[in-house]
């Protein structure tokens, strides 16, 4: 059985692309649209949780909308009731892990880099 294909970004980070360049030549990383605004059917607190995730994890894209919705509902529930059950907390942790939102999972994500030069610096220096 053949090894599963590694995404181009993963192959570059793990060194697999350097080890076997002809295997990974010509692979393109899929272009992903941004996360976008929260769905209108989410409640006000859930939409705020969505925006918090969008700010905290800038690498989230359109393909992450479903998991972000679930995590937003759980975060809103936690904000409203800090004593929510262990099962809900465990599910929230799994959502964070799937989104690359924990320290160990964050190392697996290539977040967009912040530009060093801020255009506003020209006006405030």
TrEMBL record:
Residues 15-38, 102-125 are annotated as: Disordered. It comes from the Bacteria. Residues 113-125 have a biased composition (Acidic residues). Residues 21-30 have a biased composition (Basic residues). This is Phage terminase small subunit. It comes from Rhodovulum kholense.
């Amino acid at each position: 059985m053949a090894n599963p294909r590694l995404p181009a970004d993963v192959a570059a980070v793990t060194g697999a692309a350097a080890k076997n360049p002809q295997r990974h030549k010509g692979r393109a990383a899929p272009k992903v649209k941004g996360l976008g605004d929260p769905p209108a059917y989410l409640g006000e607190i859930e939409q705020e949780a969505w925006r918090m995730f969008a700010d905290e994890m800038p690498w989230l894209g359109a393909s992450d909308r479903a998991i972000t919705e679930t995590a937003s509902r759980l975060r809103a529930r936690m904000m409203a009731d800090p004593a929510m059950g262990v099962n809900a907390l465990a599910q929230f942790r799994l959502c964070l892990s799937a989104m690359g939102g924990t320290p160990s999972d964050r190392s697996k994500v290539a977040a967009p880099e912040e530009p060093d030069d801020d255009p506003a610096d020209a006006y405030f220096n």
